[in-house]
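Record pair follows.
FIRST:
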Amino acid sequence: MHKLNDFISKEALDQALAEKVSQILQAAITLKGRASIAVSGGSTPKGFFAVLSNKDIDWKKVTITLADERWVDINDDASNTRLVHENLLQNKAASAKFFHLKQGENLCEETLADLNLAANSSLLPLDVLILGMGEDGHTASLFPCSEQIKQGLDINNEKALMKVEPKTAPHHRITFSFAALKQSKNTFLHVCGANKKQVLDKALSANDVFEMPIRAFLQDTDIDTQIFWAE
């Protein structure tokens, strides 16, 4: 399921989304003593990150991670880890914990096994998931072009984290699977601009999740995906 929340500006969206997310995180901390959130990369969330980083949350009890990451050095311009450190792990949010998806030099089976164990024991299920969406309808690193897409969207996939090799985008990736992300207690899709609205409309017009993986989140009856969009 999904609900579209549209805003008159990106700034208004950033404020509303940050307020909503901060309330959820603090409520989770009050309830169970900790909270977790996975965010996405790209330029779209930078304004949201800036607002959220200044919210009054007990940040030391929050763990931040990424929905997916490119297997590049943290100093690389393509690193989502770098993006989060420079834009979200700032101000009041500087005391939050960060769960690194990119660990070590090689994305091998041993590394994946260690990361899966750590994610399952200390992170999942997520309290908040912030998704983005590509022009091809991919989300996280669930690419329609990849040979791993069937595994990635398999609801019975027991691996929370998996390696993906997209054919239409650079870099090997590590991504949370749909099965792991589906368990998130609050799911948001953050998109901006007329082009992304066209992609969104296309995604909502048909059902083939392998053509546009974002459909898995928009159309699953067990997921209440809140779409936050601004021109």
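SECOND:
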Amino acid sequence: MILYDIVLLRTFSAVCELGGFTKAARAVNLTQSAVSLHIKRLEEQVGSRLIRRNAHGIELTQCGEVLLSYARRMLELSREAEHRLGLDRVPAIRFGMPEYFDLRPLSPLLDRFLAAYPGIRLQIELGIGPDIEALIEAGELELAVVSHEIGEGEGVALFRERRVWVAGSEMALDSERPVPLAVYPPFCRWRQLALELLDRAGRSWTIVAQSGGTAGILAAVGAGLAITILPEHHLPNTLRPLSAAESLPPLPDFAFVLRRGRKPSAAADRLAERILQWFRFSGAAGPGTGEDDQ
């Protein structure tokens, strides 16, 4: 008798419903590689192929279609059980932030907050800036840290941060050739800013790599294939900021701000006040310094 893992079934159902691994990864708060691993494990449990990739996305095998029907019913039973046991009444704070935001300085604060309020669950959503903004606008997040141009957008400023051009530690930028770029998708403001500033400076450019996540950007830059824009604080050791000697246009500062969701949430309000207090009294120019909240 096989007992299928409900977590694997949830991932499988998300891939089927959303038509792809990337969208499913965002829906279930996993990386794309983790989603692929979940599907592989489920196929090993079943003993048969469930999903095939094709030019249009994915298609289910006959075995996959049968399992999806059962998976939906099993997931519905799981939700009913959670409701009957009262687990869905535990307050949850869905907290979003960009992947390039350094969460480490807030980690002790979050630990103490959860210890003080053991009945609250914290769910952290990581993604690129526009995706986090869209989630909070849609009411799917109670709190979010987002990046804004100085003086623009909604929210309470946490701290001001510098943008820097960065390259791999061994990469030498050739001023006679187009600037090779690793960038986010077209709707991302950071990508638009890089291209606008290079155009104004008269520097030709070429997009070498595009990624919907920071990991892909860091991989391309770390491999010496391209340069990109990142926050100055906490750059990986494999990367170096580029100086004015590379003749790249200067970059404007930006601000990390805290936004609250559209729906009232007493739990989220308590956490927001803790976060604002930490930054207010730390006097930190960035997230790497300052005292903990009291």
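COMMENT: The first strand starts at residue 51 and ends at 54.
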